[in-house]
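pls design
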Protein backbone atom coordinates (compact mmCIF):
# COMPACT_ATOMS: atom_id res chain seq x y z
CA UNK A 1 0.00 0.00 0.00
CA UNK A 2 1.33 3.41 -0.89
CA UNK A 3 1.95 5.63 2.10
CA UNK A 4 -0.03 8.79 2.49
CA UNK A 5 2.40 11.69 2.79
CA UNK A 6 1.20 14.81 4.60
CA UNK A 7 3.32 17.96 4.39
CA UNK A 8 2.86 20.84 6.82
CA UNK A 9 3.50 24.13 5.02
CA UNK A 10 3.57 27.55 6.61
CA UNK A 11 1.49 29.26 3.93
CA UNK A 12 -2.14 30.22 3.75
CA UNK A 13 -4.32 30.41 0.66
CA UNK A 14 -7.04 33.00 0.26
CA UNK A 15 -10.40 31.28 0.41
CA UNK A 16 -13.65 32.58 -0.94
CA UNK A 17 -15.88 34.19 1.66
CA UNK A 18 -19.46 33.39 2.57
CA UNK A 19 -22.26 35.72 1.49
CA UNK A 20 -21.39 39.18 2.89
CA UNK A 21 -24.80 39.48 4.57
CA UNK A 22 -23.84 36.58 6.84
CA UNK A 23 -21.55 37.00 9.87
CA UNK A 24 -18.19 35.28 9.76
CA UNK A 25 -17.99 32.11 11.87
CA UNK A 26 -16.24 32.20 15.23
CA UNK A 27 -17.85 35.18 16.97
CA UNK A 28 -21.06 35.87 18.87
CA UNK A 29 -22.22 38.22 16.09
CA UNK A 30 -24.34 35.43 14.62
CA UNK A 31 -26.54 34.64 17.64
CA UNK A 32 -30.27 35.25 17.18
CA UNK A 33 -33.70 34.52 18.60
CA UNK A 34 -37.10 33.77 17.08
CA UNK A 35 -40.13 36.02 17.68
CA UNK A 36 -43.84 35.88 16.81
CA UNK A 37 -44.80 39.54 16.48
CA UNK A 38 -44.31 42.59 14.29
CA UNK A 39 -45.17 45.10 17.02
CA UNK A 40 -42.72 44.81 19.93
CA UNK A 41 -43.57 45.96 23.42
CA UNK A 42 -41.80 49.13 24.65
CA UNK A 43 -38.26 48.16 25.56
CA UNK A 44 -38.59 44.61 24.21
CA UNK A 45 -36.06 44.81 21.40
CA UNK A 46 -33.64 46.58 23.71
CA UNK A 47 -34.03 43.66 26.14
CA UNK A 48 -33.29 41.21 23.30
CA UNK A 49 -30.18 43.20 22.42
CA UNK A 50 -29.09 43.43 26.06
CA UNK A 51 -29.30 39.63 26.33
CA UNK A 52 -26.60 39.38 23.65
CA UNK A 53 -28.68 38.55 20.56
CA UNK A 54 -27.83 40.28 17.29
CA UNK A 55 -30.42 38.70 14.98
CA UNK A 56 -34.20 38.33 15.15
CA UNK A 57 -36.01 35.70 13.08
CA UNK A 58 -39.67 36.12 12.17
CA UNK A 59 -42.24 34.67 9.75
CA UNK A 60 -42.80 36.85 6.67
CA UNK A 61 -46.31 35.87 5.68
CA UNK A 62 -47.45 35.69 2.04
CA UNK A 63 -51.08 35.58 3.08
CA UNK A 64 -50.63 38.54 5.43
CA UNK A 65 -48.83 40.81 2.97
CA UNK A 66 -50.69 40.19 -0.31
CA UNK A 67 -54.36 40.87 0.53
CA UNK A 68 -55.29 40.48 -3.14
CA UNK A 69 -53.25 39.32 -6.14
CA UNK A 70 -50.66 41.91 -7.10
CA UNK A 71 -51.33 44.31 -4.20
CA UNK A 72 -48.79 44.23 -1.39
CA UNK A 73 -48.84 45.68 2.10
CA UNK A 74 -45.52 45.44 3.92
CA UNK A 75 -46.29 48.20 6.42
CA UNK A 76 -46.13 45.97 9.51
CA UNK A 77 -42.72 44.70 8.49
CA UNK A 78 -41.55 48.22 7.66
CA UNK A 79 -42.23 49.11 11.29
CA UNK A 80 -40.54 45.98 12.57
CA UNK A 81 -37.40 46.43 10.44
CA UNK A 82 -37.11 50.08 11.48
CA UNK A 83 -37.44 49.09 15.13
CA UNK A 84 -34.88 46.31 14.75
CA UNK A 85 -32.37 48.61 13.11
CA UNK A 86 -32.86 51.24 15.82
CA UNK A 87 -32.12 48.58 18.46
CA UNK A 88 -29.01 47.36 16.62
CA UNK A 89 -30.60 44.08 15.51
CA UNK A 90 -30.75 42.42 12.10
CA UNK A 91 -33.67 40.61 10.48
CA UNK A 92 -33.87 36.97 9.43
CA UNK A 93 -37.22 36.54 7.63
CA UNK A 94 -38.94 33.30 6.60
CA UNK A 95 -40.72 33.50 3.25
CA UNK A 96 -43.81 31.46 4.18
CA UNK A 97 -46.35 29.93 3.53
CA UNK A 98 -48.93 29.38 0.80
CA UNK A 99 -51.92 31.62 0.07
CA UNK A 100 -55.65 30.78 0.13
CA UNK A 101 -56.02 32.48 -3.27
CA UNK A 102 -53.79 29.78 -4.72
CA UNK A 103 -55.17 26.78 -2.87
CA UNK A 104 -58.06 24.37 -3.29
CA UNK A 105 -61.31 24.97 -1.43
CA UNK A 106 -61.15 23.73 2.13
CA UNK A 107 -57.36 23.90 2.31
CA UNK A 108 -55.86 25.29 5.50
CA UNK A 109 -52.50 26.68 6.54
CA UNK A 110 -49.91 26.21 5.07
CA UNK A 111 -52.08 26.18 1.89
CA UNK A 112 -50.00 23.76 -0.16
CA UNK A 113 -52.74 21.84 -1.95
CA UNK A 114 -51.63 23.38 -5.25
CA UNK A 115 -47.93 23.77 -4.46
CA UNK A 116 -47.09 21.40 -7.30
CA UNK A 117 -48.53 23.75 -9.93
CA UNK A 118 -46.64 26.36 -11.93
CA UNK A 119 -49.38 28.87 -11.05
CA UNK A 120 -48.56 28.53 -7.35
CA UNK A 121 -44.80 28.76 -7.93
CA UNK A 122 -45.07 31.82 -10.16
CA UNK A 123 -47.38 33.63 -7.76
CA UNK A 124 -45.14 32.84 -4.78
CA UNK A 125 -42.04 33.96 -6.69
CA UNK A 126 -43.70 37.21 -7.78
CA UNK A 127 -44.57 37.96 -4.15
CA UNK A 128 -41.05 37.00 -2.99
CA UNK A 129 -39.52 39.41 -5.51
CA UNK A 130 -41.78 42.19 -4.23
CA UNK A 131 -40.90 41.44 -0.59
CA UNK A 132 -37.14 41.06 -1.08
CA UNK A 133 -37.01 44.07 -3.38
CA UNK A 134 -38.93 46.22 -0.90
CA UNK A 135 -36.17 45.66 1.71
CA UNK A 136 -33.25 45.58 -0.71
CA UNK A 137 -29.90 46.56 0.74
CA UNK A 138 -30.85 46.10 4.40
CA UNK A 139 -28.76 42.94 4.88
CA UNK A 140 -31.77 40.75 5.61
CA UNK A 141 -31.36 36.97 5.42
CA UNK A 142 -34.33 35.34 3.64
CA UNK A 143 -35.15 31.73 4.45
CA UNK A 144 -37.28 29.91 1.89
CA UNK A 145 -40.15 28.22 3.72
CA UNK A 146 -39.95 26.37 7.01
CA UNK A 147 -39.53 22.62 7.40
CA UNK A 148 -40.91 21.51 4.01
CA UNK A 149 -39.83 17.96 4.85
CA UNK A 150 -42.65 17.36 7.38
CA UNK A 151 -46.41 17.18 6.88
CA UNK A 152 -47.15 19.97 9.33
CA UNK A 153 -45.70 22.50 6.89
CA UNK A 154 -46.19 20.77 3.53
CA UNK A 155 -49.59 19.08 3.26
CA UNK A 156 -50.87 16.51 2.63
CA UNK A 157 -47.32 15.12 2.75
CA UNK A 158 -43.81 16.39 2.00
CA UNK A 159 -42.76 16.40 -1.64
CA UNK A 160 -39.10 17.24 -2.16
CA UNK A 161 -39.53 17.69 -5.92
CA UNK A 162 -42.23 20.30 -5.37
CA UNK A 163 -39.96 22.17 -2.97
CA UNK A 164 -37.04 21.98 -5.41
CA UNK A 165 -39.20 23.42 -8.19
CA UNK A 166 -40.37 26.24 -5.91
CA UNK A 167 -36.80 27.10 -4.85
CA UNK A 168 -35.56 27.22 -8.44
CA UNK A 169 -38.49 29.39 -9.53
CA UNK A 170 -37.92 31.85 -6.69
CA UNK A 171 -34.16 32.05 -7.25
CA UNK A 172 -34.60 32.64 -10.99
CA UNK A 173 -37.18 35.36 -10.35
CA UNK A 174 -34.89 37.12 -7.86
CA UNK A 175 -31.98 36.97 -10.28
CA UNK A 176 -34.10 38.27 -13.18
CA UNK A 177 -35.20 41.16 -10.96
CA UNK A 178 -31.58 42.09 -10.26
CA UNK A 179 -31.80 41.11 -6.60
CA UNK A 180 -29.06 38.49 -6.68
CA UNK A 181 -25.63 38.31 -8.28
CA UNK A 182 -24.96 35.99 -11.21
CA UNK A 183 -22.45 33.95 -9.21
CA UNK A 184 -22.73 32.29 -5.80
CA UNK A 185 -18.94 32.41 -5.34
CA UNK A 186 -17.74 35.43 -3.37
CA UNK A 187 -14.03 36.31 -3.60
CA UNK A 188 -12.54 38.09 -0.59
CA UNK A 189 -13.77 41.66 -0.43
CA UNK A 190 -17.06 41.05 -2.25
CA UNK A 191 -19.54 43.77 -1.32
CA UNK A 192 -23.13 43.08 -0.35
CA UNK A 193 -24.42 44.99 -3.37
CA UNK A 194 -22.47 42.79 -5.77
CA UNK A 195 -23.58 39.62 -4.02
CA UNK A 196 -27.25 40.60 -3.96
CA UNK A 197 -29.74 39.53 -1.34
CA UNK A 198 -29.08 36.45 0.80
CA UNK A 199 -31.33 33.41 0.27
CA UNK A 200 -31.04 30.31 2.47
CA UNK A 201 -32.87 27.01 2.79
CA UNK A 202 -34.29 24.39 2.83
CA UNK A 203 -34.79 24.83 6.62
CA UNK A 204 -35.43 21.16 7.25
CA UNK A 205 -36.86 19.81 10.44
CA UNK A 206 -33.82 18.05 11.95
CA UNK A 207 -30.81 17.29 9.77
CA UNK A 208 -32.77 15.33 7.18
CA UNK A 209 -29.97 13.96 5.00
CA UNK A 210 -32.18 12.16 2.41
CA UNK A 211 -34.22 15.32 1.81
CA UNK A 212 -31.08 17.45 1.67
CA UNK A 213 -29.35 14.96 -0.64
CA UNK A 214 -32.25 15.21 -3.10
CA UNK A 215 -32.11 19.02 -2.95
CA UNK A 216 -28.37 19.08 -3.61
CA UNK A 217 -28.60 16.55 -6.42
CA UNK A 218 -31.12 18.84 -8.11
CA UNK A 219 -28.77 21.82 -7.94
CA UNK A 220 -29.99 23.76 -4.90
CA UNK A 221 -26.43 24.33 -3.72
CA UNK A 222 -26.32 26.88 -6.55
CA UNK A 223 -29.62 28.38 -5.38
CA UNK A 224 -28.88 28.94 -1.69
CA UNK A 225 -26.16 31.03 -0.07
CA UNK A 226 -26.24 28.79 3.00
CA UNK A 227 -27.90 25.54 4.02
CA UNK A 228 -30.27 26.00 6.94
CA UNK A 229 -31.39 23.15 9.18
CA UNK A 230 -33.37 22.94 12.43
CA UNK A 231 -31.42 20.38 14.51
CA UNK A 232 -33.86 19.92 17.40
CA UNK A 233 -33.27 17.22 20.00
CA UNK A 234 -34.24 16.63 23.61
CA UNK A 235 -30.79 15.50 24.69
CA UNK A 236 -27.43 17.23 25.00
CA UNK A 237 -26.67 19.78 22.27
CA UNK A 238 -23.16 18.42 21.68
CA UNK A 239 -24.65 15.38 19.94
CA UNK A 240 -25.28 17.57 16.87
CA UNK A 241 -21.58 17.64 15.94
CA UNK A 242 -21.65 14.32 14.08
CA UNK A 243 -24.78 15.40 12.15
CA UNK A 244 -23.07 18.62 11.07
CA UNK A 245 -20.10 16.57 9.96
CA UNK A 246 -22.33 14.30 7.86
CA UNK A 247 -23.96 17.35 6.30
CA UNK A 248 -20.59 18.98 5.52
CA UNK A 249 -19.50 15.76 3.82
CA UNK A 250 -22.74 15.66 1.82
CA UNK A 251 -22.25 19.26 0.68
CA UNK A 252 -18.68 18.47 -0.28
CA UNK A 253 -19.73 15.40 -2.26
CA UNK A 254 -22.19 17.41 -4.33
CA UNK A 255 -20.05 20.52 -4.59
CA UNK A 256 -16.46 19.47 -5.22
CA UNK A 257 -15.18 18.93 -8.73
CA UNK A 258 -12.81 16.23 -7.51
CA UNK A 259 -15.83 14.23 -6.31
CA UNK A 260 -16.60 13.43 -9.95
CA UNK A 261 -15.33 10.21 -11.54
CA UNK A 262 -11.55 10.14 -12.00
CA UNK A 263 -10.45 11.89 -15.18
CA UNK A 264 -13.68 13.86 -15.71
CA UNK A 265 -14.57 17.47 -15.00
CA UNK A 266 -17.91 19.17 -15.38
CA UNK A 267 -17.58 22.99 -15.45
CA UNK A 268 -21.29 23.34 -14.70
CA UNK A 269 -20.71 21.94 -11.22
CA UNK A 270 -20.25 24.46 -8.41
CA UNK A 271 -16.77 25.81 -7.79
CA UNK A 272 -15.09 23.53 -5.20
CA UNK A 273 -13.50 26.64 -3.64
CA UNK A 274 -16.88 28.08 -2.77
CA UNK A 275 -17.73 28.25 0.94
CA UNK A 276 -21.25 26.98 1.62
CA UNK A 277 -21.96 27.43 5.33
CA UNK A 278 -24.49 25.59 7.44
CA UNK A 279 -26.94 27.67 9.48
CA UNK A 280 -28.82 26.55 12.57
CA UNK A 281 -32.00 28.34 11.55
CA UNK A 282 -34.14 27.22 14.49
CA UNK A 283 -33.40 25.19 17.60
CA UNK A 284 -34.51 25.36 21.20
CA UNK A 285 -35.57 23.39 24.25
CA UNK A 286 -39.06 23.47 25.77
CA UNK A 287 -39.21 23.55 29.55
CA UNK A 288 -42.40 21.49 29.25
CA UNK A 289 -40.49 18.44 27.97
CA UNK A 290 -40.47 15.78 30.73
CA UNK A 291 -37.02 14.66 29.57
CA UNK A 292 -35.55 17.92 30.86
CA UNK A 293 -36.48 17.39 34.49
CA UNK A 294 -39.00 16.20 37.07
CA UNK A 295 -40.66 19.58 37.61
CA UNK A 296 -40.86 22.95 35.88
CA UNK A 297 -38.04 24.48 37.92
CA UNK A 298 -35.72 21.60 37.05
CA UNK A 299 -36.71 21.76 33.38
CA UNK A 300 -36.06 25.51 33.26
CA UNK A 301 -32.62 24.89 34.79
CA UNK A 302 -31.86 22.33 32.06
CA UNK A 303 -33.06 24.77 29.39
CA UNK A 304 -30.67 27.35 30.89
CA UNK A 305 -27.65 25.05 30.77
CA UNK A 306 -28.45 23.86 27.23
CA UNK A 307 -28.81 27.33 25.68
CA UNK A 308 -25.13 28.39 25.98
CA UNK A 309 -23.93 24.89 25.18
CA UNK A 310 -26.05 24.90 22.02
CA UNK A 311 -24.61 28.21 20.83
CA UNK A 312 -21.04 27.26 21.79
CA UNK A 313 -21.34 23.88 20.05
CA UNK A 314 -22.54 25.66 16.90
CA UNK A 315 -19.62 28.09 17.06
CA UNK A 316 -17.17 25.20 17.45
CA UNK A 317 -18.68 23.67 14.28
CA UNK A 318 -18.24 26.85 12.20
CA UNK A 319 -21.95 27.67 12.14
CA UNK A 320 -21.99 31.43 11.43
CA UNK A 321 -25.63 32.08 12.31
CA UNK A 322 -27.71 30.33 15.00
CA UNK A 323 -31.31 31.08 15.97
CA UNK A 324 -32.68 30.10 19.39
CA UNK A 325 -36.36 29.17 19.46
CA UNK A 326 -38.05 31.02 21.19
CA UNK A 327 -38.08 34.48 22.79
CA UNK A 328 -41.38 34.59 24.72
CA UNK A 329 -43.39 31.71 26.09
CA UNK A 330 -46.34 31.29 23.71
CA UNK A 331 -49.01 30.21 26.19
CA UNK A 332 -49.97 29.48 29.80
CA UNK A 333 -50.15 25.68 29.78
CA UNK A 334 -47.03 24.42 31.55
CA UNK A 335 -47.57 20.94 30.06
CA UNK A 336 -47.87 22.13 26.45
CA UNK A 337 -44.45 22.04 24.80
CA UNK A 338 -45.21 24.85 22.34
CA UNK A 339 -45.97 27.15 25.28
CA UNK A 340 -42.60 26.76 26.99
CA UNK A 341 -39.82 27.36 24.46
CA UNK A 342 -39.39 30.99 25.55
CA UNK A 343 -36.55 32.40 27.63
CA UNK A 344 -38.82 35.09 29.06
CA UNK A 345 -42.31 34.65 30.48
CA UNK A 346 -45.36 35.53 28.46
CA UNK A 347 -46.97 38.31 30.50
CA UNK A 348 -45.64 41.84 30.36
CA UNK A 349 -44.29 43.48 33.51
CA UNK A 350 -45.23 47.05 32.62
CA UNK A 351 -41.57 48.07 33.03
CA UNK A 352 -40.09 49.37 29.78
CA UNK A 353 -36.56 48.61 31.05
CA UNK A 354 -37.48 44.94 31.48
CA UNK A 355 -40.88 44.35 29.86
CA UNK A 356 -40.80 40.57 30.42
CA UNK A 357 -39.70 38.47 33.37
CA UNK A 358 -36.47 36.61 32.53
CA UNK A 359 -36.26 32.85 32.89
CA UNK A 360 -32.94 31.25 33.90
CA UNK A 361 -32.08 30.71 30.21
CA UNK A 362 -32.21 34.47 29.61
CA UNK A 363 -29.69 35.06 32.38
CA UNK A 364 -27.45 32.27 31.08
CA UNK A 365 -27.52 33.88 27.63
CA UNK A 366 -26.61 37.27 29.04
CA UNK A 367 -23.67 35.94 31.05
CA UNK A 368 -22.26 34.14 28.01
CA UNK A 369 -22.60 37.26 25.84
CA UNK A 370 -20.93 39.47 28.44
CA UNK A 371 -18.04 37.10 29.12
CA UNK A 372 -17.26 36.49 25.42
CA UNK A 373 -18.04 39.99 24.13
CA UNK A 374 -15.67 41.05 21.39
CA UNK A 375 -13.83 37.74 21.44
CA UNK A 376 -13.28 35.24 18.65
CA UNK A 377 -13.28 31.47 18.93
CA UNK A 378 -9.70 30.26 18.84
CA UNK A 379 -9.97 26.50 19.19
CA UNK A 380 -11.47 23.68 21.21
CA UNK A 381 -9.12 21.91 23.57
CA UNK A 382 -9.43 18.16 23.13
CA UNK A 383 -9.78 16.75 26.65
CA UNK A 384 -12.27 13.89 26.40
CA UNK A 385 -15.59 13.10 24.79
CA UNK A 386 -17.31 14.06 28.05
CA UNK A 387 -15.47 17.32 28.68
CA UNK A 388 -15.41 20.49 26.62
CA UNK A 389 -13.17 23.53 26.76
CA UNK A 390 -13.33 26.28 24.12
CA UNK A 391 -10.72 29.02 23.99
CA UNK A 392 -11.82 32.53 23.01
CA UNK A 393 -9.45 35.47 22.76
CA UNK A 394 -9.09 39.10 21.82
CA UNK A 395 -6.20 41.56 21.91
CA UNK A 396 -7.82 43.90 24.42
CA UNK A 397 -9.69 41.45 26.67
CA UNK A 398 -7.20 38.62 26.90
CA UNK A 399 -8.58 35.10 26.91
CA UNK A 400 -11.65 33.30 28.11
CA UNK A 401 -11.91 29.54 28.41
CA UNK A 402 -15.50 28.34 28.29
CA UNK A 403 -15.61 24.89 29.84
CA UNK A 404 -18.17 22.32 30.92
CA UNK A 405 -18.59 18.63 31.63
CA UNK A 406 -21.32 16.62 29.97
CA UNK A 407 -24.14 14.95 31.86
CA UNK A 408 -22.91 11.81 33.61
CA UNK A 409 -25.97 9.64 33.03
CA UNK A 410 -24.50 8.01 29.94
CA UNK A 411 -21.70 6.24 31.83
CA UNK A 412 -22.70 6.72 35.45
CA UNK A 413 -19.77 9.01 36.24
CA UNK A 414 -20.14 12.09 38.45
CA UNK A 415 -17.96 14.88 37.05
CA UNK A 416 -16.85 18.17 38.56
CA UNK A 417 -18.46 21.36 37.22
CA UNK A 418 -15.26 22.17 35.34
CA UNK A 419 -13.11 19.69 33.42
CA UNK A 420 -9.46 19.28 34.25
CA UNK A 421 -7.35 21.04 31.62
CA UNK A 422 -3.82 19.59 31.44
CA UNK A 423 -1.12 22.24 31.66
CA UNK A 424 -3.31 24.81 33.39
CA UNK A 425 -2.77 23.73 36.96
CA UNK A 426 -1.79 27.29 37.89
CA UNK A 427 -5.28 28.72 38.10
CA UNK A 428 -4.68 31.74 40.27
CA UNK A 429 -5.11 34.18 37.37
CA UNK A 430 -8.64 33.05 36.48
CA UNK A 431 -11.92 34.55 37.63
CA UNK A 432 -15.15 32.62 37.11
CA UNK A 433 -18.73 33.87 37.17
CA UNK A 434 -21.56 31.41 37.67
CA UNK A 435 -23.81 30.69 34.68
CA UNK A 436 -26.36 33.18 36.02
CA UNK A 437 -23.98 36.02 36.82
CA UNK A 438 -23.28 35.60 40.55
CA UNK A 439 -19.69 36.24 41.60
CA UNK A 440 -17.91 33.09 42.71
CA UNK A 441 -14.26 34.12 42.71
CA UNK A 442 -11.30 32.12 41.55
CA UNK A 443 -11.40 28.81 39.73
CA UNK A 444 -10.19 27.00 42.82
CA UNK A 445 -13.18 28.35 44.75
CA UNK A 446 -15.80 27.07 42.33
CA UNK A 447 -14.03 23.73 41.92
CA UNK A 448 -14.34 23.10 45.65
CA UNK A 449 -17.31 25.26 46.55
CA UNK A 450 -20.62 23.89 47.77
CA UNK A 451 -22.22 26.38 45.37
CA UNK A 452 -20.75 24.51 42.41
CA UNK A 453 -23.35 21.77 42.91
CA UNK A 454 -25.96 24.23 41.65
CA UNK A 455 -24.34 24.39 38.22
CA UNK A 456 -23.72 20.84 37.03
CA UNK A 457 -22.99 20.53 33.30
CA UNK A 458 -23.28 24.31 32.78
CA UNK A 459 -20.84 26.28 30.66
CA UNK A 460 -18.57 28.34 32.92
CA UNK A 461 -16.22 31.10 31.81
CA UNK A 462 -12.61 31.34 32.98
CA UNK A 463 -11.30 34.82 32.29
CA UNK A 464 -7.63 35.74 32.28
CA UNK A 465 -5.83 38.95 31.33
CA UNK A 466 -2.92 38.68 30.81
CA UNK A 467 -3.15 35.19 29.36
CA UNK A 468 -1.14 32.50 31.18
CA UNK A 469 1.91 31.60 29.10
CA UNK A 470 0.87 28.00 28.42
CA UNK A 471 -2.58 29.07 27.26
CA UNK A 472 -1.05 31.83 25.13
CA UNK A 473 1.11 29.24 23.37
CA UNK A 474 -1.92 27.06 22.70
CA UNK A 475 -3.73 30.10 21.33
CA UNK A 476 -1.00 30.79 18.77
CA UNK A 477 -1.42 27.48 17.00
CA UNK A 478 -3.52 27.88 13.91
CA UNK A 479 -6.78 25.96 14.07
CA UNK A 480 -7.00 23.38 11.30
CA UNK A 481 -10.18 22.86 9.27
CA UNK A 482 -12.90 20.62 10.66
CA UNK A 483 -12.33 18.27 7.71
CA UNK A 484 -9.43 17.77 5.33
CA UNK A 485 -10.18 15.93 2.10
CA UNK A 486 -7.44 13.85 0.48
CA UNK A 487 -6.98 11.46 -2.40
CA UNK A 488 -5.16 8.28 -1.45
CA UNK A 489 -1.66 8.12 -2.91
CA UNK A 490 -1.22 11.87 -3.34
CA UNK A 491 0.80 14.49 -1.51
CA UNK A 492 -1.42 16.58 0.72
CA UNK A 493 -0.62 20.14 1.72
CA UNK A 494 -2.33 21.33 4.90
CA UNK A 495 -2.00 25.08 5.61
CA UNK A 496 -0.63 25.49 9.12
CA UNK A 497 1.21 28.19 11.02
CA UNK A 498 2.32 29.01 14.53
CA UNK A 499 3.45 32.33 15.99
CA UNK A 500 6.13 32.93 18.61
CA UNK A 501 3.96 34.33 21.40
CA UNK A 502 7.01 35.73 23.19
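designed seq:
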Amino acid sequence: MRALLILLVLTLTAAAQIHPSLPEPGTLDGLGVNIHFTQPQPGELEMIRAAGFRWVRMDFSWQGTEPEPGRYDFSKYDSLVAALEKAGLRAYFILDYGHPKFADAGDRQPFTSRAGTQEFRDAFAKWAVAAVGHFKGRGIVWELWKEPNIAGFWKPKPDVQQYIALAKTVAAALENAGLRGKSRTFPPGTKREAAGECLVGPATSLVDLPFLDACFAAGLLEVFDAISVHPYRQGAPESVAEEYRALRLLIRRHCAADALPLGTYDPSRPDPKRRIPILSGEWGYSSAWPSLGQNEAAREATQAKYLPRMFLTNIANDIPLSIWYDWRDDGDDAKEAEHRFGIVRRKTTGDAKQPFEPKPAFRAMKVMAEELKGMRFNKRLMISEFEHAMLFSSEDRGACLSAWSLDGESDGEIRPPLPYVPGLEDISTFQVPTPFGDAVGGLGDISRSEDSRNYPNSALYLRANPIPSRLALVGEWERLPLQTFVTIGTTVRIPFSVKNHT
